């Protein structure tokens, strides 16, 4: 059987409608090597943290690691690897996750994660597709993808590093808190069209740049905060002018309609 689960933002638009599927299925056993197929990618099954660590070490660019075993196994999990590669992680829900992949890109399809305790990733990046209670990123880029939800997101760049936070269209984030206290640190926040961010707070004196194509309902900037709003068109200009306490940076000429 096939179950189709639509994201919350789809609402009732699919009620009363029908669809059909034509399926072509090719099955490869997890961890199996397909002889003679140089393009084949592996699926690694990790039943505990030791197996996860080894799978992430062995996986090559574009391969997948599945967390399985039992739900209690993944009260804590660590995604850590050194290589410059892209890895997809899916499987059981996770309690507390730590990410240390300074050169890696991770597509994270876990349905629910209670807490991402610390994330160090490359500029392209940690992509969230499920639901996360609280997330903290200390270096690199985190993307909350369409349909994903993060209750609270803390951008706390370490010294001499930058953090980029992208909230994609149809994603939901309840609150973003930036702590730019570390020396020579910076943070970039991008809010896509049709996204409403209820709360944004900024502390510290590091540089914070906001590109807001959606709506930020409430802002709180601490003393000494250096916040600028990146403006590329009329929409981002109007949003910037509504962000109290930020400087407006024009990226190009803009024509404003009356």
Keywords, separated by commas or semicolons:
258 residues; mainly beta; 11-stranded parallel sheet
Explain what you see.
This protein has an 11-stranded parallel β-sheet with strand order 1-2-4-6-8-10-12-14-16-18-19, with helices on one face. It has 2 helices and 19 strands. The chain is globular. 7% of the residues lie in helices and 45% in strands. 32% of the residues are buried. The protein is mainly beta and 258 residues long.
Gyration radius over CA: 20 Å
* Arrangement of strands in the largest sheet: 1-2-4-6-8-10-12-14-16-18-19
What class, by secondary structure content?
mainly beta
Helix content: under 10%
Question: Care to give the gist of this entry?
Answer:
This protein is mainly β and about 260 residues long. Helices cover about 5% and strands about 45% of the residues. The protein has an 11-stranded parallel sheet with strand order 1-2-4-6-8-10-12-14-16-18-19, covered by helices on one side.
Topology:
Blueprint: E1 43-46, H1 49-58, E2 63-67, E3 76-80, E4 86-91, E5 94-101, E6 105-108, E7 112-121, E8 126-128, E9 131-137, E10 140-144, E11 149-155, E12 162-167, E13 172-179, E14 186-191, E15 196-203, E16 207-212, E17 215-221, E18 226-231, H2 234-241, E19 247-250
Parallel strand pairs: 1-2, 2-4, 3-5, 4-6, 5-7, 6-8, 7-9, 8-10, 9-11, 10-12, 11-13, 12-14, 13-15, 14-16, 15-17, 16-18, 18-19
């Amino acid at each position: 059987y096939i179950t189709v689960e639509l994201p919350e933002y789809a609402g009732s638009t699919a009620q009363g409608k029908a669809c059909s599927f034509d399926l072509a299925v090719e099955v490869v056993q997890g961890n199996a090597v397909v002889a003679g197929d140089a393009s084949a990618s592996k699926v690694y099954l990790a039943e505990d943290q030791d197996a996860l660590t080894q799978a992430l070490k062995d996986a090559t660019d574009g391969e997948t690691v599945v967390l399985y075993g039992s739900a209690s196994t993944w009260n804590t999990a660590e995604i850590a690897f050194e290589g410059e590669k892209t890895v997809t992680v899916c499987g059981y829900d996770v309690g507390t996750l730590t990410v240390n992949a300074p050169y890696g890109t991770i597509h994270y399809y876990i349905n629910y994660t209670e807490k991402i305790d610390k994330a160090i990733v490359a500029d392209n990046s940690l992509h969230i597709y499920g639901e996360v209670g609280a997330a903290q990123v200390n270096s690199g880029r985190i993307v909350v993808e369409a349909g994903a939800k993060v209750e609270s997101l803390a951008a706390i760049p370490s010294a001499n590093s930058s953090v980029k936070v992208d909230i994609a269209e149809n994603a939901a984030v309840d609150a973003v808190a930036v702590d730019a206290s570390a020396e020579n640190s910076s943070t970039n926040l991008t809010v896509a069209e049709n996204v409403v961010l209820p709360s944004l707070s900024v502390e510290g004196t590091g540089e914070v740049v906001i590109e807001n194509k959606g709506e930020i309902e409430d802002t709180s900037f601490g003393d000494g905060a250096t916040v600028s709003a990146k403006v590329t068109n009329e929409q981002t200009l109007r949003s910037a002018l509504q962000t109290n306490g930020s400087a407006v940076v024009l990226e190009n000429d803009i024509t404003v309609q009356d």
